């Protein structure tokens, strides 16, 4: 279920109620998801985000969705791959959910 809210919502109010979060890997969002114990799918775009994504995956707290999976060889040119191309990386397994939940 995708919920769109017309106003900003604080991470600490929202994330404890989410089964997972898909995000860019910024330090604030990554830390908020860790604090909430929410499993993550990280799609890094810039420098530090790749580091955060790698740590999330290494620690078993979620998965990394490489940008090229979404945008293919034309990354940055506005061509988006079919949604099905991203599906394998978007699966949060039970172990990742349990590991993330243990951080609460």
UniProtKB/TrEMBL annotation:
Entry's Gene Ontology molecular function annotations: glycosyltransferase activity
Every Erythromycin biosynthesis protein CIII-like C-terminal domain range: 11-70
Database matches in PANTHER family: GLYCOSYLTRANSFERASE, STEROL 3-BETA-GLUCOSYLTRANSFERASE
Name of the protein: Erythromycin biosynthesis protein CIII-like C-terminal domain-containing protein
Species the sequence originates in: Chlamydomonas leiostraca
């Amino acid at each position: 279920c995708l919920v769109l809210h017309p106003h900003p919502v604080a991470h600490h109010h929202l994330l404890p109620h989410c089964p997972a979060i898909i995000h860019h890997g910024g330090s604030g969002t990554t830390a908020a998801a860790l604090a909430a114990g929410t499993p993550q799918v990280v799609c890094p775009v810039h420098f530090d985000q790749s580091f955060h994504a790698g740590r999330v995956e290494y620690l078993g707290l979620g998965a990394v969705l490489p940008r090229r999976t979404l945008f293919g060889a034309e990354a940055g040119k506005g061509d988006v791959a079919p949604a099905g191309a991203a599906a394998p990386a978007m699966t949060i397994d039970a172990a990742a959910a349990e590991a993330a939940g243990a951080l609460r």
